[in-house]
Amino acid sequence: MRYGRLGMMAAALALMASGPIAAQTLRIGLAEDPDALDPDQARTFVGRIVFAGLCDKLIDYDEKLAFKPQLATAWKWSEDQKSITFSLRPNVKFHDGERFDAEAVKFNIERKQTLPESRRKSEISEIVGVDVIDPLTVRLDLSKPFAPLLAALADRAGMMLSPKAAKAAGAGFANHPVCAGPYKFVERIAQDRIVLERFADYWNKDAFALERVVYQPISDSTVRLANLQGGNLDMIERLAPTDIEAARQDRRLKVAEVTSLAYQSITINVANGARSKTPLGEDPRVREALELSIDRDALNQVVFNGAFLPGNQPVPPESLYYDAATPIPQRDVAKAKQLLAAAGQPNPTVDLMVPNTSEDQAVAQVLQSMAQEAGIALKLSVIEFATALQEETKGNFEAFLIGWSGRIDPDGNLYNFQHSTGALNYAKYRNADVDRLLDQARTTLDDGARAKLYAQAAQSYLADRHIIYLYHRKWLFAMSSKLQGFVPNPDGLIRLAGLTLQ
């Protein structure tokens, strides 16, 4: 481990010495390499960071999570809440020069619903029709009222691609994405960099001063910080909590932080192919034993210096949608051993797939030590993040240490993972009661009534434990003191409007 870290540091220093970059280029260090640069196929958090500069959405939201116009300037619900009409921004162009209009919206919504590789289907499943009223007016017709719709359209489900480019590329659109954002795609070299450059015909180009943005994946948080301190990067996301003081004491740097919408968890394969046929996948007592071996408070203190928030649900304890009747379980090694004995598995071995970031590996090592005290041998399989996602999709995992960056509507933290038809339910979890309650919550517009439905659903899926939630993070950013205008958002994304390098 020590020699691997020194090798990465040497590589980082070599990168620092590779030569100067233009002053108007913003260089951002990412914790992982994104997956597909197609909003309809993508699933990574770091991909969303890139999309923030590349692909405009119908609507956006500010740092207080209030919706605001983007490609749509206004929207209006029908009285029965079964349709919504959008007024579109005029004179908008895609990066290939094609015009953005209502027909483009219709194409994009239908692509998200029909592309075989699309992971947006369940996010907009209640849309049953898209009506072009005129070139700058479009109506979405719903099968029933759909509470999470605006939140979905303020994320990847609302990102607009050039119909011409998407038709020509098909499932290969990610190789050269063409959107309508402030920056256009230049190149991508896997595990090395993604380069965007300013789009001269962007509808709000005066808000963007930087000529280029370069995203560089560096999985080791110490190496990311070293690159920032050495001047090879201008900004890094997910500064390690253990490095906060070092960054604050460096006069060349500054730090920004915000409480996130995100969670970190262990996803357990319960029904996705042969790898689910294990004591962990087939017996809920083994899964409960694993959870009872974990001390979430100690995990937070040891790995994060207490900076994060322990949690056991997809929303944090202070959320309206948190089920207070199912609080964070306390560690109970004795009970964990009893459950394992009752299951006939006193010393099970569990393969835990772990992304190759330094933070994830530190978390996994603490979990491994805790589980061992209960008689569970956690075997850590460390793998590059995007590759790990591919393995999860194929069901080639037993347990996976994987997080979710969080959404402004609770449905975005739940439906895709807990519903049997959820696009990201790679554990293949199925519970008819959970399906019914999540479906009902989607059509319930009253917050209090929705909270009760989510609480009922939590009683089931938390007992089934195909996902064991661990903690809610803070988004920690470090940047050069020369970078001005950055405002952190609870979604953790880096919005480029107003940023300048002095």
Strand content: 15-25%
Largest sheet: 7 strands, mixed
CATH class category label of the largest domain:
Alpha Beta
Structurally, the number of domains stands at 3
Say which CATH homologous superfamily of the largest domain is assigned.
Dipeptide-binding Protein, Domain 3
CATH architecture of the largest domain: Roll
Number of helices: 16
Report the average pLDDT across residues. 94
Report the principal-axis shape. globular
Question: How would you characterize the overall build of this protein?
Answer:
With 502 residues, the chain is of the alpha+beta class. It has three domains: 2-31 and 182-259 and 475-501, Periplasmic binding protein-like II (D-Maltodextrin-Binding Protein, domain 2); 59-167, Dipeptide-binding Protein, Domain 1 (Dipeptide-binding Protein, domain 1), CATH 3.90.76; 263-472, Dipeptide-binding Protein, Domain 3 (Dipeptide-binding Protein, domain 3), CATH 3.10.105. The chain is 32% helix and 22% strand. It has 16 helices and 21 strands. A seven-stranded mixed beta sheet has the order 8-9-10-1-11-19-12, with helices on both faces. Helix 12 (358-373) links the parallel strand 15 and strand 16. Helix 1 (2-16) packs parallel to helix 6 (221-229), helix 9 packs antiparallel against helix 11 (333-342) and helix 14 runs antiparallel to helix 15 (432-442). The longest helix has 18 residues, at 447-464. The protein starts with a helix and ends with a strand.
Please describe the topology of this protein.
Layout: H1 2-16, E1 25-30, H2 45-54, E2 59-61, E3 67-69, E4 72-77, E5 83-88, H3 102-114, E6 127-134, E7 137-142, H4 149-153, H5 163-169, E8 183-189, E9 193-198, E10 212-217, H6 221-229, E11 235-237, H7 244-249, E12 253-259, E13 263-268, H8 279-282, H9 284-292, H10 296-304, E14 309-310, H11 333-342, E15 349-355, H12 358-373, E16 377-383, H13 385-393, E17 399-404, H14 411-418, H15 432-442, H16 447-464, E18 467-472, E19 474-480, E20 483-484, E21 500-501
Helix pairs in contact: 1-6, 9-11, 14-15, 15-16
